[in-house]
């Protein structure tokens, strides 16, 4: 099972890394068009995203659009003391940035900018792959699984929505018994949505 998940991870990462600059640009624009119809965005003021890495769909155009809508945007920061956990810090055009241990840009840690997860309205999550049942395959670190443990258990807290390129969809992923599907995943071509039983 673990080997199969590794194989899926490697194959899908290669697919998205092979997208051209023009394909990436078009995907980012189409993603905004899809997100404009999301009722979750209209109902939310405090929205967490992430900065693209490793061929992920570029989120900066979406972030800029959210700023134009007057939304407050937050980015994940690796927790300095609690291994495997995330903090979310307010992000705007003037936020000082730094590279974390994965060489991903994140806001420089400032305790006054931290937003507790339960005070976020909506969290857009990265993923490596997803299937037709809403199962999400991450990078394997479990950061977002831990972040959403309470939501998955009780349905209380910010709504998680996945973002992905069209090529990151597969019909069925190998799953573990602790995997919990996402309620919604947005790609440039469509919005995938599932009714989840909490």
TrEMBL record:
Question: Could you state one GO biological process linked to this protein?
Answer: tetrahydrofolate interconversion
Entry cofactors: Mg(2+)
The reactions it catalyses are:
(6S)-5-formyl-5,6,7,8-tetrahydrofolate + ATP = (6R)-5,10-methenyltetrahydrofolate + ADP + phosphate
Q: Which GO terms describe its molecular function?
A: 5-formyltetrahydrofolate cyclo-ligase activity; ATP binding; metal ion binding
Assigned keywords, A-Z:
ATP-binding, Ligase, Magnesium, Metal-binding, Nucleotide-binding
Q: Answer yes or no on keyword Disulfide bond.
A: no
Enzyme Commission code(s) on record? 6.3.3.2
The record ties this protein, via Gene3D superfamilies, to: NagB/RpiA/CoA transferase-like
- Please list the residues that bind substrate: 51, 56
The residues that the entry says bind ATP are 5-9, 136-144
- Short name of one Pfam family: 5-FTHF_cyc-lig
Family (UniProt): Belongs to the 5-formyltetrahydrofolate cyclo-ligase family.
Protein name, per record: 5-formyltetrahydrofolate cyclo-ligase
């Amino acid at each position: 099972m673990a080997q199969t998940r590794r194989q899926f991870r490697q194959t899908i990462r290669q697919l998205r890394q092979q997208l051209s600059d023009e394909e990436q640009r078009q995907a980012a624009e189409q993603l905004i068009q899809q997100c404009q119809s999301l009722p979750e965005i209209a109902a939310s003021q405090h929205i967490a995203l992430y900065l693209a890495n490793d061929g992920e769909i570029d989120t900066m155009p979406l972030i800029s659009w959210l700023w134009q809508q007057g939304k407050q945007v937050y980015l994940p920061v690796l927790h300095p003391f609690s291994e495997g956990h995330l903090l979310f810090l307010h992000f705007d055009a003037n936020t000082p940035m730094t590279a974390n241990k994965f060489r991903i840009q994140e806001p420089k840690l400032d305790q006054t900018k931290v937003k507790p997860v339960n005070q976020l309205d909506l969290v857009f999550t990265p993923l490596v792959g997803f299937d037709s049942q809403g199962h999400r395959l991450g990078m394997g670190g479990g950061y977002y699984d831990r972040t959403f443990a309470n939501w998955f258990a009780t349905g209380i807290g910010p709504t998680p929505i996945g973002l992905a390129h069209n090529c990151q969809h597969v019909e069925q992923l190998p799953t573990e018994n602790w995997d919990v599907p996402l309620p919604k995943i947005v790609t440039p071509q469509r919005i995938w949505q599932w009714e989840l039983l909490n």
